[in-house]
Design goal:
The protein is α+β, with helices and mostly antiparallel strands. It has helices at residues 4-9, 19-33, 52-58, 120-133, 198-204, 208-232, 289-297; strands at 96-98, 105-114, 144-145, 150-153, 165-172, 181-194, 234-236, 239-242, 250-252, 255-268, 271-284.
Length: 313
């Protein structure tokens, strides 16, 4: 007599099954697992007859036409649900000034200045001199330059058509140099930028491609608005600075504070705005090298961390 424990401990006897039963069991297990019913090729254990050499003959490469295309859906940004009605309306003054400009097109050109790796200030002087020396080649166009590799004009350059490249020579004598340096300026057409409907694109929240086109127009306007200020002031990032007129901004250690303005073109639902703000940063004071070293090491009176005077003070 068997107990319940004997039944649990005794493994069930395996029944002999026919090949047909085994095939049906395999198919049923495949359906349950949801995998392909194709047999898995055996792994190679060396140079056996059923190894990689035989498997490679049975493998069919997948062509690019058999790969399904992937569709990317660009979701539109959610629109603004409405405007608030509670509270008391007030008049608010901001540091944003609306730009009044006509629509139309500006023309974007890629520029390459040789020798390269010059400071942006030198590059701006080169482009400024280029306009003076080659007015005929440029058809009298004024060039808005970002100091690096981008130029914008309101008229097409007649000498640059399609994929043509215009190369002009410029002789420039920079500040502090006695000899004249020669620069080569290569100009090539890049794109036509439309200025129409910049604010409408941001207000209506259109698709991503339109936002990219609007961003290109904003960049063009920003470069145009910064061109003249970049030639007349010291530029750091998006800010313009002028040297202080007195020594009241001295910071010590050979440095002084310069004050200026921050400038940036920004789109808004009311139109395209010029954002202006105050800015300040530290510059090294213009002075003889010996005076600068004296301030750093503490020599020369009360001009440094050494404070009270001579070499050990």
């Amino acid at each position: 007599m068997k107990s319940l424990g004997d039944d649990l401990l005794t493994p069930p006897k395996s029944k002999e099954s026919s090949p047909g039963d085994q095939d049906s069991m395999k198919k049923s297990s495949v359906r349950k697992l949801g995998v392909s019913s194709q047999p898995t090729p055996p792994r190679s254990t060396g140079s056996s007859p059923g190894g990689l050499e035989n498997i490679s003959k049975k493998v069919t490469p997948i062509s690019s036409q058999q790969i399904p295309e992937t569709t990317v859906v660009c979701r539109e940004p959610p629109p603004r649900p409405g405007f608030g009605r509670r509270g008391r309306p007030i008049q608010l003054f901001t540091n944003h000034f609306e730009l009044d400009f006509r629509g139309g097109f500006v023309y974007h050109y890629d520029v390459e200045i040789t020798p390269g790796k010059c400071p942006r200030g030198i590059n701006r002087q080169v482009i400024w001199q280029l306009q003076e020396d080659h007015k005929n080649a440029l058809n009298g166009c004024k060039l808005a330059f970002d100091g690096a590799k981008n130029i914008y004009t309101t008229k097409q350059l007649p000498s640059v058509n399609g994929g043509d490249r215009l190369t002009l020579k410029v002789a420039l004598r920079t500040v502090g140099e006695e000899k004249t340096r020669e620069f080569s300026v290569g100009i090539k057409f890049a794109a036509t930028v439309s200025l129409d409907g910049i604010s409408d694109i941001y207000l209506n929240s259109l698709v991503t491609t339109k936002l990219d086109e609007s961003q290109n127009a904003i960049q063009a306007l920003d470069v145009i608005m910064r061109t003249m200020s970049s030639m007349n002031f010291t530029t750091v990032g998006r800010s313009f600075f002028t040297p202080p007129r007195d020594g009241s901004t001295y910071l010590g250690q050979g440095r002084e504070a310069w004050f200026g303005r921050y400038q940036s073109v920004r789109p808004s639902m009311w139109g395209v705005m010029l954002n202006l703000d105050v800015s300040a940063t530290a510059f090294y004071k213009e002075q003889p090298v010996l005076d600068f070293l004296s301030e750093i090491v503490g020599e020369g009176g009360d001009g440094g961390r050494g404070g009270g005077g001579g070499r050990g003070g």
